[in-house]
Amino acid sequence: MSDLSATALAALEATLGPERVFADPATRSLYASDETPQHCLPVAVCFPRAHAEVLALVRWAYTYSIALIPRAAGSGNVGGALPVPGSVVVSFECMTRVLEFDPDNRLMVVETGIVTDEVDRLARSAGLMYAPDPGSGAYCRIGGNLAMNAAGPRCVKYGATRDHVLGLRAISGDGREIRTGSRTSKYATGYDLTRLLIGSEGTLALITEATLKLVPAPEAIATLRLCYSRTRAACEAVIRVMRQPVVPCALEFMDARSIEALRAYGDAQDLPEGTQAVLMVEADGDAHALPEQLAALNRALEGPGLIETQSGFSKAEIQRLWTARKSLSHAVKRIAPRKINEDVVVPVSQLADLVDAIDRLGHRWAVPLVAFGHAGNGNLHVNLMVHEADADEMARAAACRRELVETVLAMHGSLSGEHGIGSEKRQFLALEIEPSTLALMRQIKTQFDPAGILNPGKKFPD
Ligand SMILES: Cc1cc2nc3c(=O)[nH]c(=O)nc-3n(C[C@H](O)[C@H](O)[C@H](O)COP(=O)(O)OP(=O)(O)OC[C@H]3O[C@@H](n4cnc5c(N)ncnc54)[C@H](O)[C@@H]3O)c2cc1C
Is 207 near ligand 1, meaning CB less than 6 Å away? Predict the structure, then answer.
């Protein structure tokens, strides 16, 4: 179906109010894609303002068998918010209220359209913080973070989104209201549907409200930037750091090709000659305890291949040290216009082997591979830089991707550390999840969404 029937559209407008429903070509095309290059025009885009309106919308969709595509900021890079033919996009952009901020119980209840950094900003006004810190935090929204179990540099110490949610309010695909979890820091009642819905990529329920867990904001933070002459030496340093007791609040890695791209972009002037890998390491906590933490981290980070260590304590110094890492996304676009972004994760002890394997695969398939990311979690973003018009290169990239996935799985790793499966990675899911487990997951999907109208074409292989 390429258009909504007049009856269905009239019913939708009557449900939400005509000012909340857009079926014009310009709006539909604005919501036709996310960060991936795929496009599909939805038949309409809706902007509900509260839980009750989302409930009415889902019941309308269930009645008319219309697929709903939940969407937060559209910054996902696996096609998770990609419409399918005949679908209606449900944008949560108008659901941005803080319903309750309760510092005594270290929690905040929010509507799921709120921007992630705003939650953190408000929490900090009371000496608390919202720990998950995806790189897109300035614009991505809590609903998208919940659906993808988003993470970020701080997650090596604090955990991912799933570890910072006490409860949810949501609506299943047949219009049932769901409340999960509680407002308490301990909870042992019923099945843990909170953890099930987090990471479900909008395929089980539309999440309208979340009770987020806050933690005390650290008093001080310090950053180390370490340059190594060999990639393997940097990976071995990561393994040593994660084996000792002081857990850094960031442990990020950039490989040789990332540094090459940065040099071409002009943002690596202060990296010493011969640098083949960079680690960014942060520690946080009480100001008086930081020097001791840094000393322990430095001891673990020292070793053969370390060329230079720089440290930063003030906001300006820290910002300067992070410049190269923060400009990496733009810099890699110089290598080729299209980036196929893999987000693999391995047990941290396998990191050096993973980086070697990435190097070998890049040479074997003659595809530039740029690897960087959250090394402390064993989670690397492996970017295959390609030209869409070059069919031969695209075929080599496809073969390279599959071999990368197989290599990671052989290391007891996983397809995705934080970006999720969406529509882009579902072809690989059956390589990781055994048939009986996948069948159970499909049954769970059917329980939540019997008509299959919630975000079809995502998460599961065809
Ligand atoms: C520059 C850049 C940096 C990034 N850095 C990180 C990073 O450090 N860590 C990380 O994890 N990711 C990162 N990402 C990926 C992306 O930002 C995250 O996946 C983020 O969680 C997506 O949020 P969003 O608001 O854009 O959601 P969208 O892309 O709009 O949606 C993501 C998924 O959530 C579903 N969804 C949205 N709202 C709801 C809801 N209310 N109920 C049910 N389902 C819903 C959508 O259907 C879709 O499947 C980055 C992306 C970019 C472009």
Answer: yes
